[in-house]
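Run log, item B.
One chain of 86 residues. Sequence copied directly from the ordering sheet:
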Amino acid sequence: MASQVIVLLPAWAPSIERLFYLIAPFVLRRHVSLIVALAPGSHGLRFAAYQFGYYGEATDWCFFPIDLSLLLEGAIGERMECAVAG
């Protein structure tokens, strides 16, 4: 319906962005095996949080250890793209 209003929530919290810029230079310059090893740990933390009932907007977008997996997966994808292209 045209009369319904949809509220779009932010994809990042400012605290997540600050931590990203603080952590990214140190993690993303490491060997890809470290990045691949860290990603499942972050996913495991997400699944454990969900198992204990912590799910929703706060855990999905505002808790950096859980969101770290998204950063790491992007880094892995970028490394794979460079390896294929180069």
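Observations after the first pass:
- DSSP finds four helices and no strands in the chain.
- The chain has one domain: 14-85.
Flagged for discussion on Thursday.
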